[in-house]
Here is the input.
Amino acid sequence: MKKLILIFLISLSYSELISPDNGTTLNHIHILFEWDQIPEALNYTLQISEDINFSSILVEHIDQSTAHIDKQNLDWDNSYYWRVRGNLNNVSLDWSSAFTFSTSQSLSSSSISFINDSQYQDGVTLFGAFFNYFSAAIDKNGKEIWNSSDNNFVYYSSNNFGNIFGCNLLSGAENNLPGMEINFQNNIIWEEPNDEFLHHDIIKLPNGNYLGIVEASTLGPIPIGTWTPSFQSLGFQANGTAIEFPWVGDKLVEWDKDTKEVVWSWSVFDHFNMNDYDQIGGTWIEAYLSLHYDWTHVNAVVFDEINNALYISSRHLSRITKIAYPSGEIIWNLGHQMPSGEVNLGTDIGFSFQHSIQILSNGNLLTFDNGNLSPEFRGTDEPISRAIEIEIEDGVANLIWAYDLPPDLFGFASGNAQKLDNGNVLITTVGGGGRSIEVNQESEIVWEGLYNLSLPDGAVYRAHRVPGLFPAAFSTLIHNYVSNTTDTGVYLPIGFSDITFSITNEGEYLLPLTIEIIDEENWFGEQSIELTLEKESTETVSLFGEVNSLQSANPIHITITPKYHSDKAKTTLIYGYTYPLNNDNEKNIISNEFYLEEPYPNPFNSNIFIKYSIDKEQLVSLQVFNLKGQLIQTLVRKNLTKGEYTNIWDATDHPSGAYIIKLSSPTMVKSHKILYLK
Here is the structure.
């Protein structure tokens, strides 16, 4: 599958449907609908039907936005039609042409059980199924809402910004499980080079590069133990000293995000002592059968931005290691004490063969203790899996919370634990056919999801609760966007002027954005601003420039790029005119009755007086912006009759600096720069 980069070029001279694309087949049933802005539209009506004539309406949604996410009304293995129209006051415009799309087949057979609905952490549960080679997401009721289709993708993890990481089974390839990042549309965003065997985990670093766990190997001795006679029968010396047997370990590899060249690596063979090895977990018996020793079996890696460090979980050493980045120095080893004496933290906690690591906001670690050696390490009657939270303070590790799974949910491999936003913990195990349970802070089960996967033992690798399927969904509305019989665009008065637009985060994640503007006449120069939107929030942005007289339209391109999802960048094309776009098509200079006087005093130290006049009854906005184009305060936004007005802005609660006072109507804009000095 090729990497797909989508850049929407939106010409605002007409209305068009954007997504879902006409004739497409979707691998999800939570669906984002997007369409173009229509000039002067106050809101939009979206209709969805199962027939092309819309004789029966399945969904009718009215909103001011040019996007809508439907999470309730659509299903698998079906076809749908959708259309949109704009509404102007009491007038409805014509419907757009209808688009059609289909949904594919669901892949899972999950079921759930609610114990305490009120304490459930909102979101969807995303899981990967090894040996079944697919991934899926279910809602709180167990209904599948997304799957990886026929791509053989196994989910590993996701981050706070909705990036999805995992591997893909490539039959016949040298590295048949390459690590990759995909999006919920199943487009490959990045794929690990097919030259090393990546397994268990891949993450994205703050610098944008990717880091994964790959195999490393060297020859080593066969240590003395109950297993040694078996190796001697094969012809090995097996005397604990002879360097004769393949040891398979792990290394961390960082690839440049663009070139895919290796820019940093770290190997267990350079930092761990080969005198440390599993003596009681049966891994040397497995080595006898496979003729190589799976020594460390690193199965998880996370990056700690606060401490600039990596944490890895070495399953077969029952050890968690903190590594300084990029020096590679081991800061500490946590877990089972072995002959080298290099583990000196948490030796009494007793976790074994653990999977997954989560760094909590308080600095503690959460992991899934598979507990393969819990009878030996903890004195249990049989192997018990558990989720544990570990506090490390002043060089001492303490177990501060644990949740023991019942014996029938023992997970001999895989699994993970995730601390949720509400304080609950989602615990995933291969036990019992593969399942996740959500427990509250009192260790009471509030929700349980059963994945009903095939052997071995359910084969669920990991599962996480994520906010939703749309980490980079946003819409843009250009202010004062109008049209007449010949022109469509915005009026920008000659001199100091601006173009203003609203951006709405339509999705469920925190959304950092970069905004850039380019125009043919260079009115706005080179401007780039960064903005972060909370989920379902709207921000108004103004970009200021020096407008020169122009007899025709100036094409202006505004590109908005999500920081962590550049494939979702959108470029909006808007035409700027230096004459008003009156509906009568007269291209005369606007009457001086619509006027913003120079605010006074300027500079000012607390309050500034703003006088302006309105030429006719109309919707008027009086707003304050900073020089980054971010809206600071709306002083007026309402219908005003013809006349003169005065407002006072009290800037006491704002920092010193330059600001922009902007007066606007649907067809006219006036601005002045002011300076606040405390």
Summary: Residues 1-14, 584-592 have pLDDT under 50 and may be disordered.
